[in-house]
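Hey L., structure's done. Input below.
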Amino acid sequence: MKPPESLSARIHRNLCENTNWLYDLWYDDEEKRDKLQRYYQWHFKELVLCVILAVLLTRVDKVQQFFSAFATDIKNGVQLPLQFVVVFGLNGVVIFWLCYVFWHKPMRFQAGHWRRWICGDKRREDFEAYYRKPGNAWRVAMVSSLPMLLVSATLSLALLRDNPLDNKTSSPLSFWLESNAMPVLFGLAVLYLIAGSLIRPRSYVCDSRSARRHQREQDHPGATHSAAKPPKHFRRLEKIFRCEQCLKESRDEERHLEDCPKTATEYDAQLGMLWKAYRKNFRLLLVSMTVLGILVWFYRFYAAPFCYFALLVFSLWGPLAVAFFLNSFSECLIVEAQKKDACEKEDKTYEPKFETWYDWLMRASYFAGIAIFLTCNNKSITSQEWFSLWMFPIAMLMFVFIAYYQVLDLLAYNMTTLRFYALIGAVLVLLVFFAQRDHYRMKFNGEAPRSGSLQRASLEAYFLQWAKDRFQKDTSGFEVYLVAAEGGGSRSGAWTGAVLTQLDSVSDGRFRRQCFAMSAVSGGAFGTAATLALWDHAQQSGIGDAAVYRNGCRVNYLGRVFKRNYISTALAGVFFYDLLQQIPGVHLLYRGQHSRTDRHQDEEDNAVCAGLGDIFGEKRRLQHNYFKKTNFLALYYTNEWGDSVARPKTDLPLYFPNTCRVEDGRRGIVSPVLMNGAQAKVNPENPFNDAAVDIIGIARDKEPAKALSIGEATSLSELFPYVNSTVFINENTGSFMDGGAYENLGLTTLYEIRVALEKICGNPDAAWLGQMLPDSSRPVFVDYLKKLQFKMLLIYNFDNHENKTRAYYEGNSLQLLDPITAMMQTPFGGHTDYMYHKVKSELGAQEVIDFPLLTSKEPRSTRSDKIVMSRWLSKYEMNEIMKRAAVCVDSNLCRVNGRWCGESGIKPF
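Output:
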């Protein structure tokens, strides 16, 4: 047995072997070709999963958000040390676990006759024999470490790229990395495999067939190369590329096979040497992870040349350290198995050591997988804030890979091929034809009022009562504000909440009192609802506006709501509890049958209540589940027991969440006022016709005693495909998805309301005036209505609604995807742009005021000014949104209300 070799000698030896192997493969050596084919077949599943992982890491914004947020916080020094260590360590452990799962093969089912009847008699020799061949343990370890390389490289790319919020004109390198992330990952993977092939350790695994082949080579020299002799004109190339000295050294290297251990004592000696290598590699792994963590933590202090080298080391060093550890452990197992065979031949007692560790590690892996799986399926856990803080999206995504790989590999390892595919086919049939959908039903969590059911007033009656309340209190202002909030995940929600609260703060609460209606979609709906929760608590608790907005309370509140990670629970729902509940029989294991949309409502409720608690403390009206339990209509009506007439209360703006019905694509509205489509033609004061779905009205026809909560009404608008599930209300009402599928700004609803309000002001209901106002006040009130000025405030993501007549054609799209692209762009671009330009052209710039978050760039610019649309914002992005809200409100305040602009300057956020 040869002594340990130096690194230079190892690289030289491996280079010789690689050179000759590639030469033989080029000239179609049958043995080398068959080996390569076996390697590919063995690692096919792992390579496919790695390709899928690479696509997710480079092509999905929701996944990239984790890396961009983590990298941004690191580069700006806002990442807390403890959180960095825990998050970096947690994700590192999960990724290392994924490497281990790719490396090991699962246990065998231990059961009686039923196992053979269900699974068949699966032969396992092919799996076990692969590892017994020299060098295969290293190849398995290298492939197993590829997921860690992909994740580390993606974080490195995020660190290298310029932050678009800091650097609007990004460097050419940053722009190139952003556009070519997938090729970069592929190139790093190839570099990793090349580096691994050069520094791979000598294999001490002895294979009997290799030893016999070596003996034949000694008996018949020159028989090693079975490839066809190259043509004469290639002889010169042969002298250049084929290193005879390397070939001689490679043959000499194989002579250690003659010295393979033959007795148990010799195997013990070899295990002792391998044990030393294992301990050294284990220490190397721990030191490497510590050094890499420190390397990333201090990244913001590096100069430009060193940062490239540091990130290259970060990307390659960790996976290689894992590969060395897995290889040494694997070779210990293989040699110990050979020792077992020798002990049986010599009739000696065999005491396993590494095999025991391996069995323990494998059982611990399954136990940990089941524990995490149960955690991700537990509703009371996934809705908690600590779960969102520590179970980051990339860790959840890695665990999804682990879980499915373990299950599929466990079945494939124990079931015959026909039974395995029959089982997969049966599950697919159950999902397609017999899937359970009860957990997608609306739960109606809103608390029923004392009257049994809150009645709604017509838009005309409610507006006249609203105007009367303002007329009696203050006639100095005639502005009436109507707000539309665009969808776009937490980015839109935070932007909507920031703009609304900034306007209310600088106006000392007058904006809230003069805002009549807010129409919102998706993320904008959540931002609107969270703002209403803040205003409602301030009103009910008797806390003044100055107290609500003091000392950055609104910043802390909105940060608590929108810096939360809502992605991990959605991923768990898509791949676990939502999917499994659709399988007949399995759905019975889930008590309550809550979908991922229900879990998302729980998270939003938890975040809003926690934020309200930070501001109001014990003065919160509801200590728990305010967002989830509060009746949506209770914001606008108060009834006594048995009242059949609506009693409006006008403290808060009307809130209109917009959604889209799945069955026919119609716009659905959760309306706090009556929607009688049959009267739309004869009563112009009714803004909605039969094309709009009155969700509350239709749902009451079948279930009159049930009530929607604020959270449920908001959730109906933010059901983004696949991130959230669709919601089924009942057979009369239908199923609903994200409101952006119809029109993403909510401007259609708001425009119809404005048209109706102008008609109401021009011709108010005489019966209502005669009943609600004395004769002396009636003419003055009518004159007051005619003086009202309606201003529409549009809160949206991108300032890109202009110059849309010319196409921006990149010339790199696949023609087959054109129809899908058009269908996706129609609601988010086409319908939204149509309503935007219609309102702008009819009303003019003075009556329609824009509040865009992001500034569009000219075509083919190097970088767009963007904050990623996601369900999770970093600290840096949240601070940037608050700053931009202050600037945007300041620049538009005079157009919103000239008196507010002249009274005081803008207040800092």
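The two ends are 72 Å apart (CA to CA). The mean pLDDT is 80.

-- N.
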